[in-house]
Write a structure and sequence with these properties.
By secondary structure, the protein is an alpha+beta fold. The protein folds into four domains: about 170 residues, Molybdenum Cofactor Biosythetic Enzyme, Chain A; about 45 residues, Molybdopterin biosynthesis moea protein, domain 2 (Alpha-Beta Complex); about 90 residues, Beta Complex (Molybdopterin biosynthesis moeA protein, domain 3); about 70 residues, MoeA, C-terminal, domain IV (Beta-clip). Strand 24 and strand 25 form a beta hairpin. It has a six-stranded mixed sheet, with no helix packed on it. A six-stranded mixed sheet has the order 17-14-18-21-20-19, with helices on both faces. The chain has a five-stranded mixed barrel with strand order 22-25-24-26-28. It contains seven helices and 28 strands. Bound molecules: adenosine monophosphate and magnesium ion. The site of magnesium ion has 5 residues, from loops.
Length: about 400
């Protein structure tokens, strides 16, 4: 049986960045740039006013005010000024409008009293050259490189691309992930389970984990433990970049997933890991796809929901990063200290749901095992314990695998 680290290496050996393609900005969130983005012009393209007020010559406003000036023009955003400001003159100007020649500062409207074509300015602070004005090219220069290959497109960067007219960036796209839940006992969340049945918590959870990882998810219909229908649903999943299957991968009588995947041409890379929860995890590679893209990365996660989360965080999330062309990075990067003594019993490394408190103090919860999702819903992540029976003292350092957070 592989260790977690060996299994992760095997997964990443098969997770190559997806081929880049051009996508409209509206579809580019979470994409990773595959080209350099440059400025198509200076920004701002002209000296512009940063406030509503009066464009003035700062030299006219030396010493103590108030200052009485002639207003020679009204300049609104989108208009081009026609008049040059001479001594004793100013123009009314709005935020974003081009500065008129002769003016080098803007005094805010709140510091003015207007009467026809005259204005009295009483600035609260001395008016220095450039105050209230953004000079041409201050934000960027034409031809300057702004972002490059490997940069993730977050909302602000998408705004930046829009500002330079980069409307269809070349990106490594978000991977497409099929989510297949298997099991005769599984019913959708909006149905009342009959005798022996259980609601499908995995599909909702994995769908959200996938989307939180900047990938697209496609949730398949629930697959019964029946060979033909299961085969049909798994075959459809093999058209995506990744397929996550839950249930049916262990040694039960109706655990049909491994055999069906084999029949569909999926090459198993490993099946079973020294890990708790999540030992029966299966990983394989689908056949090359008709469009020439590499075979689907197939993860068969055990049906118990907590096994699914842990398997996702340890193996699927790094694989998705690699497909997006990013450094996968180790999953458990935080080292925390036990809040209290904790005894761990077991022959496999164990990821134990825990709360993370102030100062990276970790408090393992009262967990009932891999079917107990409720306790994990109260957790911040998982404390990792090595195999073996050990009594840990308070303050013992332990690696911590965080659950994703949704707030930025
Ligand atoms: P299996 O891996 O198919 O043997 O399933 C292991 C356990 O997980 C069984 O108790 C299943 O009922 C449960 N299970 C399987 N799939 C799901 C699911 N989609 N949502 C919630 N529980 C599940
Ligand atoms: Mg099952």
């Amino acid at each position: 049986m592989l260790s977690v680290a060996e299994a992760l290496r095997a997964v990443l050996d098969h997770a190559q960045p997806l081929p880049p393609r051009r996508v409209p900005l509206a579809d580019a969130l979470g994409g990773v740039l595959a080209e350099a983005v440059t400025a198509d012009r200076d920004l701002p393209p002209f000296d512009k006013a940063l406030l509503d007020g009066f464009a003035v010559r700062s030299a006219d406003l030396e010493g103590d005010g108030p200052f009485d000036l002639e207003v020679i023009e009204e300049i609104t955003a989108g208009r081009v000024p026609r008049k040059t400001i001479g001594p004793g003159q100013c123009s009314a100007i709005m935020t974003g409008a081009p500065m008129p020649d002769g003016a080098d500062a803007v005094v805010m409207v709140e510091d003015s009293t207007r009467a026809g074509d005259r204005v009295t300015l009483s600035p609260r602070k001395p008016v220095a050259p450039n105050s209230g004005r953004l000079t041409k090219g201050r934000e960027m220069r034409e031809g300057e490189t702004l972002l490059g290959p490997g940069d993730e497109l977050n909302p602000v960067r998408l705004g930046l691309l829009a500002s330079v007219g980069w409307a269809t960036p070349q990106v490594v796209p978000r991977p497409a992930v099929a989510i297949v839940s298997t099991g005769d006992e599984i019913v959708p969340p909006d149905q009342a389970p009959g005798p022996g049945q259980i609601r499908n918590s995995n599909a909702t959870m994995l769908d959200a984990l996938v989307r939180a990882s900047n990938a697209e998810s496609v949730v398949a219909p629930i697959a019964p433990d029946e060979p033909d229908r299961l085969r049909e649903i798994l075959a459809e999943g093999l058209t995506r970049d990744v397929m996550l299957i839950t249930g049916g991968v262990s040694a039960g009588k109706l655990d049909l997933v491994p055999g069906t995947l084999e029949a569909l041409g999926v090459t198993a890379v490993f099946h079973k890991i020294r890990l708790k929860p999540g030992k029966p995890l299966l990983f394989g590679i689908g056949p090359n796809r008709p469009d020439g893209t590499p075979g689907t990365l197939v993860f068969g996660l055990p049906g118990n929901p907590v096994s699914g989360v842990v398997g996702f965080l340890l193996f699927v999330a790094p694989a998705l990063r690699a497909l997006r062309g990013l450094e996968p990075g180790p999953a458990a990067t935080i080292t925390a200290r036990l809040a209290r003594p904790f005894s761990h019993r077991g022959d496999r490394p164990t990821y134990f749901p825990a709360r993370l408190g102030e100062g990276l103090v970790v408090d393992p919860l009262n967990w009932a095992g891999s079917a107990d999702l409720r306790t994990v819903a109260m957790a911040d992540g998982f404390a990792a314990f090595e195999a073996g029976d050990r009594d840990h003292d308070a303050d013992t350092p332990v690696p911590f695998l965080p659950l994703p957070r949704i707030d930025p």
